[in-house]
Amino acid sequence: MLPASRILLQTTIPATDDDWHIGRFGLLRDCLAGLRDDTDQPLFDVVARNREPLGAPDSVLSRLDSSTFDQLWLFAVDIGNGLTAEDCEGITRFRQRGGGLLVARDHMDLGSSVCNLGGVGAAHFFHSTHPDPDPSRHQVDDTITTDILWPNYHSGANGDFQRIDICEPLHPVLTDPESAHGAIEFFPSHPHEGAVGKPANDATARVIAMGRSTLSGRDFNLAVAFEPSDEGGPAIAQSTFHHFADYNWDPSRGSPSFVSEAPSDGMAHSSEAQRSIRRYVRNVALWLAGWPVLTP
Questions:
Q1: Which of 82, 141, 170, 181 is the most exposed place for a label (fewest CB within 10 A)?
Q2: pLDDT band at residue 296 using 50, 70 and 90 as cut-offs
Q3: Beta-strand pair 205-212/219-226
Q4: φ, ψ at 186 (rounded to 5°)
Q5: Which residues of 234-250 are buried (b: 16+ CB within 10 A; e: fewer)?
Q6: pTM for this one?
Q7: Is the peptide bond before 199 cis (omega within 30 degrees of 0)?
Q8: Which parts of the chain fold into alpha helices (H)?
Q9: Of the candidates 254, 243, 249, which has an alpha carbon nearest to the alpha carbon of residue 266?
C-alpha cells in the first residue's frame, strides 16, 4: 500500500466571507478525502487553506518546496495581487522538485498573479497582462454580464454543465471507462471562463480539452496538461476555478454577493454530469501523484 499523497488546496486570498475563500471548495475537498484504495485506506491526505494576509510572502507557499506536500491545487481568485514573488518562487521550486500542480483562474484579470509561476504561468492568458497571443481572441464573448471583459467565454450558467471536446490523443486525466465513449464528457459550466493555452516553447504541454461558447459558438481551451519532465512534475492549467467550486456543483451551497447571474440546475438533475466531474477530480489527483489513473 502506498502512503497517502498529500494535497494542498489553496486560494490566493486571505479568509474573506464574501469571496471565493477555500470553504467554497468543500465538495472538492470531501471528494478527494473520500477516495480510497482497494484496501479501503485513504488515497489522499487533504489540507485546505487560504493565503495569509496580503503584502508579505505566505509562510507555506513561499517555502512549498521544503514542505511534505506532494500536490498543490491552486485556486487563483485574486485580482492580481494574490501571490508575491517569493510565493511564485516557492511554488516553482516545488514543481521543479517533482511536485504536482493544478492552477485554475477565472475571467479577465482574475488570478493574474499566477503569471510568474514557472512553466504553468505561461499557459494562462489575461486581459491586462500576458494576453492570448491570438489577437482575434481579444474580444468579449459573454455579452450578458457587461462589466467583465475578455477573456470571458460563456459555457453556460453556474449550476449547469457543458459537454467537452477531447483533444486527441486522449489524456489519462480524461479517461472514463464508465462513459459510453471511454472519456469524460462533462464539466460544470460558467458564464465567463478564462483563457489557457499551450506555451509556445514548451514541448511538454498540450491542450487536452476544449469547450464551446453557448453565445458565440466559438471554441476555447478548457485544460492544458504539462507532462512530467526534467523541468518539473506534472501540471494542469484550468480555464476556471468554477469547475471545482461548490456553487457550480450545487448552487444551493451559495455564492459571494457580487455574483449577479442567475444560477441553473442542470447539474442537480444529471447524475452523469456529477459523476463526470468527480471522475475528473479523481483522475487528476492520481496523475499529479505520479500514480496510474486506475479504473474503478
A1: 181
A2: very low
A3: antiparallel
A4: -135, 145
A5: bbbbbbbbbbbbbbbbb
A6: 0.97
A7: no
A8: 26-33, 85-96, 246-249, 271-288
A9: 249
CA dist., res. 268 & res. 160, Å (int): 8
Q: Are 237 and 103 in contact (CB under 8 A)?
A: yes
CA dist 154 → 118, 185, 218, 264 (Å): 28, 18, 9, 14
CA dist 292 and 12 (Å) reads: 30
- The strand pair at 165-166 and 205-212 is best described as antiparallel
CB atoms within 10 A of CB 87: 27
Place of cell 483522475: 283
Helices (H), ranges, 176-259: 246-249
The set of residues, in sequence order, having a beta carbon less than 8 Å from that of 71 and lying 6+ positions away, is 5, 6, 7, 8, 99, 100, 101, 102, 285, 288, 289
pLDDT at 51: 98
- For the record, the C-alpha cell of 53 comes out as 494576509
How far apart are the C-alpha atoms of 261 and 204, rounded to whole Å? 37
What cell does 86 get? 517569493
**Nine cell digits for residue 180:** 459510453
Mean pLDDT of the chain: 97
- How many Å apart are CA 11 and CA 273, to the nearest integer? 25
What tens digit of pLDDT does each residue of 42-91 get?
999 999 999 999 999 999 999 999 999 999 999 999 999 999 999 999 99
CB burial class (10 A; 0-12, 13-18, 19+) of residue 263?
buried
What's at 65, amino acid-wise? D
CA distance 272 to 270: 5
| Residue 139: how many other CB atoms lie within 10 Å | 12
Residue type, 64: L
d(CA 290, CA 288): 5
CA 16 from chain centre, in angstroms, equals 20
The tens digit of pLDDT for each residue in 127-165 reads 999 999 999 999 999 999 999 999 999 999 999 999 999
